[in-house]
Amino acid sequence: MKKLFHIAYDDDIKSGLTTDIYFVRTKKILEAKGLKNVKVVAEITVSSLPDKWKWSILAGLDEALKLLEGLPIDVYALPEGTLLYPRDYRGLRIPVMIIEGAYYDFCIYETPLLGFLCQASGVATKAARIRKIAGRGKILLAFGIRRMHPALAPMLDRAAYIGGFDGVSSIIGAKTIGKKPMGTMPHALIIVFGDQVKAWKAFDEVMPEDVPRIALVDTFYDEKIEAVMAAQALKERLYGIRLDTPGSRRGNFADIVREVRWELDIRGFKHVRIIVSGGIDEDIIPELIKAGVDGFGVGTAVSNAPVVDYAMDLVEVEGKPIAKRGKLSGKKKVWRCPRDLTYLITPFSVQEPPSCPKCGHKMSQMLKKYIENGKIIERMPTPDEIRDYVLKQLELVEL
Predict the structure, then answer these.
(1) Which CATH fold topology does 10-121+306-394 show?
(2) pLDDT digit string (tens) for 230-244?
(3) Which backbone phi and psi does 276 adopt, to 5 degrees?
(4) Where in the chain are the domains?
(5) For residue 350, how many C-alpha atoms fall within 13 Å in the half-sphere facing its CB?
(6) Which CATH class is domain 137-303?
(7) Which pLDDT tens digit goes with each residue over 78-104?
(8) Beta strands in 85-166 (DSSP E)
């Protein structure tokens, strides 16, 4: 069947069609020269992070494990949602995943494996940064799927959610995380009605009770005027108003928010929350919160987040340490202090947990064995469990 869209299906990815050609050629050479069974240890690390980020959130592990499932290999990895630095306390690169087995058996999967981890980790990290800036009490909604290929919607929304967002707008993304999709209304609905009040009341009349009544209030008139109109029309049923004013008409966005908040409060509508969207990013969130914003719809900043640039390297062949220049040979263990998230890398043979070089507390071994001879042996946490894990770690770090 001819494909309608330029996407790779599950079978395309699992069969190696999304890899780089030199891995296919490598596999052919190994077979021709009788090296199919040479056992190696490969590790995935990152040497630096984009945009001066100090830390990142590991995401995409669930897809990475499904990609490698069924291969005659063992896989160790940090748990999904782990907050980590590119290097440990001594400046050594931190492995996020270790693969053991014949290189012939998994070499063609390096390209999609890195793709799963790099992009999802970038989105989750950006989401976590915005959550850290906004604080735990503000509403964060992922609105970014329209900026990316629609085939990526489930991954984008899942990564944003586990990174700390409260909800996602796409139907399939919400299904992926086991939630209901969240959103308000488009300007088009109001324009079709030709009247804001009629559109808001129609929304209230038609939508089920579990859908929050959030009115878009910047279509025809000044934002504060439409906000008051919406509050007077729906009264106590109005959960909030959304400002999506385009940049060309926005002026000082924080001042607009202050005006709206004042006009609502002075008329007895203090219960009405203010949600803003459109061009929201890290730099403007603090000022908008100070002005009175209760929640943010964030699109492009999250969906188009820079990737975390992971790389895979061989560090051991047939039990002997060996690596290319710039990388450290040998299988390793990753230790982390539960108190301050300080990392320490040691040879894999180290058994006794080291003490944290900062606080002296015993460190925890972070790498878990997820795949044993092709079988996934570790239960994968739910999106909610991963999100909770991320939020707890965020309390221990600064941006």
Answers:
(1) nicotinate phosphoribosyltransferase (3.20.140)
(2) 999 999 999 999 999
(3) -125, 150
(4) 10-121+306-394, 137-303
(5) 17
(6) alpha beta
(7) 999 999 999 999 999 999 999 999 999
(8) 97-102, 139-142
